[in-house]
Amino acid sequence: MFEGLKGPLRLRPAGGENMVPRIALIMAAIVLTGAAVTGMWVTYANGGHKQAVAADDMANKLWGRHIPSYGVTVSNGTGYVAQTGITGMTVDLTANPQQVFVGQAVTLTATTSEDVSGYELVIFDQTTGQWVGSTVTSGTTNTVTVTQTSAGSHTYVAYVGLPDSPADTAAASQPVTVTWAALSISVQASPNTNVFPGQRVTITGRVTSDGNGVFGQTVTLSANGGSLSPTSVTTDANGNFTAAFTPNAQGTYTITASCVGSTATATIQVRPTFTVSLQANTQTLVEGQSAILTATLNQDVSPFVLDIYDQTTGQLVGSPMTSGTTTAVTVSVPSYGTHTYVAYVEDPNNPSTPIAQSSAVTVTWLMKLTFAFDQVPTIYVGQQTTISGTLTHNGQPVPNETVALSVNQGTLSTQTVTTNSSGGFSVTYTATTPGTVTVTATCEGQSGSTTFQVIQGATSVTLTATPGSSSAGDTTVKLTATANAPLAPTQTLTILDLTTDQIVGGPTNQQTLTVTVTLPQGATHQFVAQLNG
């Protein structure tokens, strides 16, 4: 790389400032003796002569430096002198390390056996043809840090040369080769779609070179949101690494993994959190009847499923919904009781851990009750009667159940009764107005009733007198009292002689009362018919 010095010769001291340059002696010898002595003085300049060896030894002792060595040639009567090195100086070059990955740094250290004052110590990249680092003009060491952005080998050599003519080599090291190997990184997220806020995502990746995992590499991890831990990991023996990520909201997240200048990314799609509601069209009904359960989501369930479970029986009701936002299921039970239902969003591949669930909804099926009433006869206003009945379930008496009673007219002795051991119950009814009476019994939302008639008793009466025969001066009169309606059992009909204040007919419970009275000739009596009760 370095060429011999050509053109006018320049003198440079090899020792102290007052020391006569050896090159001057060489030139004088050339002028005095001509080409014939060239060989001797070249030998002298190169230290082959005893005097040259002694002079170099003296320079090293006096100034701690070796003297330069020169080569002298004569061509066509012209003499040429070139410095061929520094007598006794050595240059070593080391690289630490020599096998690295692209983007990593290597330290090159050039070391000379003596101070390079008056010269330059530099490092050259033979692969690129470029000088690297800075120039050292004193001391014995030049340290340079180098790195490469692409894979390949670079060969470096350290040189000692003249400051104003660095192309002239005074000393050189052996070449040192450094190899940068390509490094690649991959990263994945699992799961990476249909992820929910707060759900854990596993981050895995691998660092490789030529397809082989690289151990001990530091990987830096980052995310554009959420929580990532750890953010710095070290690859294992197979080049693998792992971390955990938790998103905090809906959106798209990017995980970035970096290692020695190589970068890879993984994308995670986070959907909104599911909300589930469950409603029943009725929460109380009788056994044998059906209820409709409706589950509603805030978003399409796909690719998950929506199930409704009867927690009381541990059974799935209806079919799983695999798409859409709403499903309705009709449910019924074989016997009375209360059942609790919950709607779940589940991953078909992991049904043991629900993604979301609704609040519980309870539906109560009541016993199917039957009321049987004893027949009630027609009664009159003011009369009392007993209303009796029996409560049964599937033909069996139902004891100790509270029965509520009501009536459309008249009065009941109580509004609630409790069935006896035979399921029987009774209440006293008092009629206050005529008409059709309905007594209703209710238990657990179910009812039965009985009807009967209440009639009004007589409210007025008329009296007629029909003269009869006369005999011996007496006269007979037929008196007839007639009520306007049949008499109630508590009513009586009588005919009273107001003149004598005596009852002349009755009392009777019949609607018509007829009597015959005899009056003395010429006597006047006043009669009246009375409706009693």
Protein architecture, described:
The chain is mainly beta. Strands 4, 6, 7, 9, 10 and 11 form a six-stranded mixed sheet that branches. Strands 22, 24, 25, 27, 28 and 29 form a six-stranded mixed sheet that branches. Strand 6 (120-125) and strand 7 form a beta hairpin. The radius of gyration is 64 Å and the shape is rod-shaped.
Produce the secondary structure layout.
Blueprint (H helix, E strand, L loop, with lengths): L21 H12 L4 H8 L4 H14 L4 E8 L2 E9 L4 E6 L2 E3 L3 E8 L7 E6 L4 E7 L4 E7 L4 E11 L2 E8 L3 E6 L2 E7 L10 E9 L2 E2 L4 E6 L3 E3 L2 E3 L5 E7 L4 E9 L2 E9 L5 E5 L3 E3 L4 E7 L7 E6 L4 E7 L4 E6 L5 E10 L9 E2 L3 E6 L2 E5 L5 E2 L3 E10 L2 E2 L4 E6 L3 E2 L3 E3 L5 E7 L4 E9 L2 E10 L5 E11 L2 E10 L8 E6 L4 E7 L3 E8 L7 E6 L1
Parallel strand pairs: 4-11, 22-29, 31-39
Antiparallel strand pairs: 1-2, 3-5, 5-8, 6-7, 6-9, 9-10, 9-11, 12-13, 13-14, 13-18, 15-17, 15-19, 16-18, 19-20, 21-23, 23-26, 24-25, 24-27, 27-28, 27-29, 30-32, 32-33, 32-37, 34-36, 34-38, 35-37, 38-39, 40-41, 41-44, 42-43, 42-45
Helix pairs in contact: 1-2
